[in-house]
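Checked the freezer inventory, then went back to the computational side. Two predictions to log before the end of the day. The first one is the construct we discussed on Monday; recording sequence and tokens without edits.
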Amino acid sequence: MATLVAIGYPDETTATAASLEANRLAKDLIIQPDAIAVIIRDREGKFHVTTSHHAVGGGATWGMFWGLLFGMLFFVPILGMAVGAGLGALTGKIAKNAINKEFQERIREELQPGTSALFLVVESVTPDKAVASLSRFGGTVLKSSLPKETEEELQEALHGSPRQ
């Protein structure tokens, strides 16, 4: 089962530095992320998103996932996605099943102007090593698990079959 992890930072630069460390941890096989995203909310309140996708052939899926997630969380269209009837239904499934309201509210509270957050979708992790490496960046950890059935529904809706 994949887990969505979000870590909020009190400035605009730390999430980017932490994402570089997360990529290093992935290369060292300490974490196994499917996707990593950084969202920065500048002092004027505008959102800036950077994403990376680790699943081979999954780039479109994760790009759409981040677009739906950030659109749902912040009520702004991220990544310029066109949302048709199918994607609108998918947004409802994500909102209903995967990301609980408490998680949504905590993310919105955390990402005030002049802050940033690191988002990871992680398949597996060596907790002690990952925590030791990422703890030097500080931040507030928020976490929401994506249930297996919701992950499969997301994959099926976007690609026609679950990811292997």
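The second is the one RB wanted added to the comparison set:
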Amino acid sequence: MIDPREPIVTPVPVEDLRPTQITVGMREVGLKRQMIRAQDAKKKTGAFLGRHMVPVVLGPKNRNYVTDHHHLARALLEEGVKDVLVTVISDLSALDKDAFLFVLDNRGWMHPFDENGRRRDYAAIPKTIGELVDDPYRSMAGELRRQGGYAKDTTPFSEFIWADFLRRRIDRNAVAKNFDKAMKDALALARSKDADYLPGWCGPTSD
């Protein structure tokens, strides 16, 4: 008998996954690619993928829409990994396309914002993982969390909220010119009171 608390996982071709966002941080994708390459045997790669299942929502035509781990999916695609394990968190395959996208949006399973932080129409979301666009501020947000700038949080797309915060305060040319220096500025900003409304903020307290 199957334990209902255990996720039901299915192998799905990576190239068939549908994104629910427009961008990724390509530096983040690069780090994921290094993790995948470190799995130097098929057995280890299988164990790695078993620990990194991709959550999806089933949409019209039974397509798999990714709700998290877009960076991992893009890295797998670029590393030539054919299949990935997915776990279905909701089956909305009975809905038509418009209703399906509306539900994704209102449940926080979609982030239709472009690399400039502007909200776009649903049609702007790529149809494949390979078409995701680079947002350097999303890379900064990921690195900021690794450096202890903020804590991991369950808020949907919390890294993108931090990316938007950084986008408004650090010049894009400065990020491109010297990422490490820009990260020092980002750490200082993350610890300031200006950031206290953000998910996972762990700046200074009065006690």
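For RB: The beta strands are 9-13, 23-24, 54-58, 64-66, 83-91, 133-134. The longest helix spans residues 26-37. Let me know if you want it refolded.
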